[in-house]
Each structure stands twice: as structure tokens, then as C-alpha cells.
């Protein structure tokens, strides 16, 4: 079985009653002949990887850190706990106190909500940056 490989650039994404329609722009010299010859409506198995300016695949997980993982790491971090004490956010440097503070401060009932709650996620990243600054100055 012969596979087709080409580079495309996303130019549009829309939705109709059957699903999403992804429009790619392909340079004329990159379009595989078999794709041009196939009938409209032909089905394909598609594998895509986003590439950076260096032509290398982008690791999406590295570029978008998991906020739940960050929150878990911060709650267990003794330095972050002390940072909250120093900032007057909690009275005691403990994981339990930090978790309760985080839920209250971010308006969430569970840290998993950080994946879907943009405001809470923004607050998490803000406090994380303030913590990093505090660490550098300590």
C-alpha cells in the first residue's frame, strides 16, 4: 500500500451537520497525484503532526502544560506552601491547607476543573509566575 505525504497549512475550520470540515492549503508541487485523481468523497486515513519553523514536529504536551499536573505539583511543593504563608494566603504550610486555599481562591471544587475553567487556569498560572519570582528573590 502506497501512502501519500505532503505539507499542508490550515486555512479554515468549519462545522456542518456531519462534522468538522478542515481546509488545508497545499503547495501545487506537494499535492500527490493520487489525491488529485481520487473522486470527491473518497475517504482517507489521516495522520497529522504539527511542525515548527525548524521543520521538526512540535511536542504539544510540552507547549501546553497540564494545569492539573501543575496544581498537584504546587500543592505538594514545600516552597510553594511557604510562599503562600509569606503572602498571607494560608496560616499553615501544608498540602491540605494549600489544596483548600487553591479550591477557594480559584472557585473550583476539584483541581480537575482547571482543564475546563479558563479563569481558574489563568489564576493558577499567575500564582505560579509569582511563586517563581518569589523563589528567585528568596
Question: What does this protein structure show overall?
Answer:
The protein has about 140 residues and is an alpha+beta fold. The chain has two domains: about 10-60, no CATH class; about 65-135, no CATH class. The protein has helices at about 35, 60-65, 65-75, 80-85, 95-105, 120-135, and strands at about 10-15, 20-25. The chain has a two-stranded antiparallel ribbon. A hairpin with a 2-residue loop joins β1 and β2 (about 20-25). α3 (about 65-75) crosses α5 and α3 packs across α6. The protein is elongated. The N and C termini lie far apart (about 60 Å).
Number of strands: 2
* Poorly predicted segments: none
Average pLDDT taken over every residue = 91
Helix content: 40-55%
Count up the domains.
2
Overall geometry comes to elongated
State the helix count.
6
How many whole angstroms does the radius of gyration measure? 23 Å
Q: Distance N terminus to C terminus?
A: 61 Å
Structural class: alpha+beta
Largest sheet: 2 strands, antiparallel
Share of residues in strands: 5-15%
Please give the order of strands in the largest beta sheet. Answer: 1-2
Taken in chain order, the helices and strands follow as: EEHHHHHH
